[in-house]
């Protein structure tokens, strides 16, 4: 077979990587190369260097080492039975691309994933070699995210964590049944086992040894995972319950939700649908509520229930739990303020700070940056009283888009 | 009276002048601020009076916030900041109180400057200009910020690209990093650096990482406004990617409906049979 040019390989292997939602380059340690001997820095915050017309940010060079794969996961463009064009990068090619893109300030670093060739261990070893070359030979201090192969040997995972900032292992589908029918070679137990391994090593790396020396570095930006939404019939309640468990049991930094979108050469087992983008958006909102607003998964969506697609989950919760409202903005505790629609974490901090000096009025909330229209029915303060609004039976209609006449044609 | 601030080190000079004026008890409305070489002010008085002197004491966040807001392009910023520090020092106002219109204006300008700096860190695109035989690689970029942020934005690049020489030129100032030393000077060459072969690979990547099934142009434009496009090597691909997306998705659907998948079906039925046996 003729050797493909670098740009052809890049086209194939970037195309194959675009179904991974994560492009985060945040978290972890701060490094720089000011001393002049190396290249790269991480600030802890992450930077998006470009946006594609799909509205997603491009922060990392997100590519596959190869899209040859011996697995046959029905939802995946690279599955063994797919007719997609195949290519394979060498370790040197990935290293060069990463460094040349980085030097021109196109990217924050590398997100490397791979199809499984020959065996999980050999594939993982190749990925680790890329990360090691970047760090040891090229003195690269930018961000590296490695997609970990769950069946790979623990020593390889340990070495991956030594070089990478973040590791991720995809749970792929929200339920075990869906995984075993759509991804016959993968198993929930192996995936969870690998996550537990990453968590344990991450914790060990934060400890000091008995003599007070630091333990070896291990993926300082933690681990994340991804679930495909809409390829199987799982409800949002189940999905959020699963996420809550993943956050709790394996200390994940993020769970990404990826709306299943049509792929070239798709398997016939999967629905011919438009990607459920609104549902994906609502799940991210719900996930945010769990991580930053103190909500529990069952409060947002009970098992077997789906999220309301027309209004956001926080508003839906407030409408369903009106006994807590209206809330006195000048007296309510932080955890209740966080539950008011239209008031975000930053607004809550500003309210708490301003409250120390004086009583807040309605106009102040506008200045603070609250989305006042959403908050109005749920709050009371000088200058505003919601009167009967909290008990109004038609309150939902104030927020939901107007009902639409179905088209006859 | 008139105060002329230098083009380089503007904020630090403002700080020094503000202290001096406050110590002399000069009222905010009596000062005309400008940058560079201003035309002489016919009504400028020479000597300030010493009555009503104010010692400037500000919390740290206020100093940082003000110094950031002072990089804004608004020509009124120096006068506003001086009036504000006097009020803050006399305890007439609390830093961060958004109910005060002047305070809010400064906070909003601070935010705009921070965003501009962040966008600079994201959208500067270097092109290689290494001279033959050099032992350090050299890169250059042309960038057009909204505000006067080059001095505040450039140290980031010094921390990131420590092992190479680089230059970032803006319409007013240029930052130059050579052998580990950074310098700011006035811009003399306003031509963008010549194109670089690696840009082709970057454009290939940009076109292929885009998923046509999830077209969301609004989300892209709010984060990457059009004003930046002309200096981004990948941006001229965008209109064609948007235009061809629906046809690409339709083609995927067509192919989907026709594709038989015997290997997968066979494997799945084998797994199902195995399950029943277990």
UniProtKB/TrEMBL annotation, chain A:
Cofactor: [4Fe-4S] cluster
Record domain Radical SAM core: where: 64-199
Transmembrane intervals: none
InterPro entries membership: Aldolase_TIM, DNA_rSAM_put, Endo/Exo/Phosphatase_dom_1, rSAM, rSAM_sf, RuvA_2-like
Pfam families named in the record: Radical_SAM (PF04055)
GO molecular function ontology, one term from the record: iron-sulfur cluster binding
Keywords: Iron, Iron-sulfur, Metal-binding, S-adenosyl-L-methionine
Signal peptide: none
Domain of life: Bacteria
Name of this protein: Putative DNA modification/repair radical SAM protein
Organism in which the protein naturally occurs: Rhodobacter aestuarii
From TrEMBL, chain B:
Pfam families named among the record's database cross-references: DUF4130
Domain spans labelled DUF4130: 88-234
Superkingdom assignment: Bacteria
Name of the featured protein: DNA polymerase
Organism: Rhodobacter aestuarii
